[in-house]
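task queued by scheduler; priority normal; single chain, no ligands, no partner chains; default sampling; output format set to structure tokens
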Amino acid sequence: MVVAIAALSLLATACGDDEPAAVVDTSAIEAEAAAAQSEAESAHAEAHAAQEAADAAAAQAAAALAAFEQAQADAAAAGEADAAAAAAAQAELDAALAAAEAAQAAAEAA
């Protein structure tokens, strides 16, 4: 601001104006500059807050994806375990039936 006022004063002197340059009321200009600076700072703060919110949302999404993938792995493991248990039970049943048939055959033979 001081430079602008000095430039206006030099310009008035260079133009041959012997009278001193008119005093420019800079208060309105300074108020507009301060308002613009305040708006810029607010916009920056809002952008920073939005970035933090986006980062938090991304972290939440990553955690949800990891939990989903773990649940899928757990379900697959449980399914395999259930299938193995069913196969073992079937094998036990088959063995018991075979033993019963053998016992029946032995009883009939005696």
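post-processing summary
- The chain has a mean pLDDT of 84.
- The chain has one domain: 2-109.
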